[in-house]
């Protein structure tokens, strides 16, 4: 087809990841810088130290003491299972995302929030 362009895989994942974010995360988290909800904003989460947003004060002691950094691998570990199993003592109540494609797309989307 002349003139047709295909979306790069990362952009396609951004779209699918945004849909997953809206369905799974947006009730408690925003994607907007400085806009916290029940949970902290996900803006800039990629490679950020866990429990480090200065304008959010409701982190659990478990998360504050975790010394985690939100790398893609850490996000995958945390979001692929029940949050209380991944980090006992966390305040986040989430049962985990078991679809690997959705999980990967969500992580691409979260890392795009800059």
What is the strand and helix layout of this fold?
Layout: H1 9-24, H2 61-64, H3 72-79, H4 83-86, H5 100-112
Helix pairs in contact: 1-5, 3-5
Key words describing this protein structure:
single chain, mainly alpha, Cytochrome Bc1 Complex, Chain D, domain 2, globular, heme
Overview of the molecule:
By secondary structure, this protein is mainly α. It has a single domain (9-50, 59-112), classed as Cytochrome c-like domain (Cytochrome Bc1 Complex, Chain D, domain 2), CATH 1.10.760. The protein is built from five helices and no strands. It has helices spanning 9-24, 61-64, 72-79, 83-86, 100-112. Mean pLDDT is 91; it is low at 4-8.
Summarize the structure.
With 114 residues, the chain is an all-alpha fold.
The biggest sheet amounts to: none
Q: Give helix % range.
A: 25-40%
The number of domains:
1
Query: If classified by CATH, what would the architecture be?
Result: Orthogonal Bundle
**DSSP strand tally:** 0
Name the average pLDDT. Answer: 91
The count of helical stretches stands at 5
Our measurement of the CA-to-CA distance between the termini, rounded to an integer number of angstroms, reads 34 Å
Poorly predicted regions: 4-8
Shape summary: globular
CATH superfamily: Cytochrome c-like domain
Find the CATH topology: Cytochrome Bc1 Complex, Chain D, domain 2
Report the order of strands and helices: HHHHH
Radius of gyration: 15 Å
The CATH class label is: Mainly Alpha
Structural class of the helix and strand makeup?
mainly alpha
The proportion of residues in beta strands is under 5%
């Amino acid at each position: 087809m002349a003139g047709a362009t295909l979306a790069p895989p990362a952009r396609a994942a951004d779209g699918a990841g945004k849909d997953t974010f809206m369905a799974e995360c947006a009730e408690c988290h925003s994607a907007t810088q400085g806009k916290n909800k029940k949970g902290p904003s996900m803006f800039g989460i990629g490679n950020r130290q866990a429990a480090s947003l200065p304008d959010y004060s409701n982190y659990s002691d478990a998360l504050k003491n975790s010394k985690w950094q939100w790398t893609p691998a850490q996000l995958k570990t945390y979001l692929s299972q029940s949050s209380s199993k991944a980090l006992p003592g966390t305040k986040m109540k989430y049962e985990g995302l078991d679809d690997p494609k959705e999980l990967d797309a969500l992580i691409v989307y979260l890392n795009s929030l800059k």
